[in-house]
Amino acid sequence: VQLQASGGGFVQAGGSLRLACAVSGNIFRNNAMGWYRQAPGNQREFVAGINGSGFRKNYADSVRGRFIVSRDNAKNTVYLQMNSLKPEDSGVYYCNFDTRGLPWLIRTDFASWGQGTLVTVSS
Q1: 53-75 CB burial, b ≥16 within 10 A, e <16
Q2: How far apart are CA 27 and CA 86, in angstroms?
Q3: What pLDDT is attached to residue 47?
Q4: What's the pLDDT tens digit per position in 69-117?
Q5: Residue 8 has what DSSP assignment?
Q6: Regarding predicted confidence, which is higher, 19 or 26?
Q7: How far apart are CA 48 and CA 104, in angstroms?
Q8: CA–CA separation, 111 vs 82, rounded Å?
Q9: Bridge partner list, 21
Q10: Cα 63 vs. chain centroid, distance in angstroms?
């Protein structure tokens, strides 16, 4: 199982970033995918999720209206477009999946995590 996030960086408040997570083909197909983040000293939290077809999405209240999750099933990749970034959006961003579907992505007690990508938003 490989989950590798990329696209992080340093951006000023109000700016945008687009994250990508490349996923092993055998776990990507038809599985709901989620984005998560962890700021220093904080617990990991759910950010956004998307079901296998890409038609259903879910967002944390803190990012709804600013972030957009999408997926390209042909490329086994899930994306997170982050707009109007705030300093509190800073952290390491990860992706993960759940075979049971979109509602289960809200949890964070996954057995394993792939490589995350660091996002730093300056004020």
Answers
A1: eeeebbbbeebeeebbbebeeee
A2: 32
A3: 98
A4: 999 999 999 999 999 999 999 999 999 999 999 999 999 999 999 999 9
A5: -
A6: 19
A7: 12
A8: 26
A9: 5, 78
A10: 11
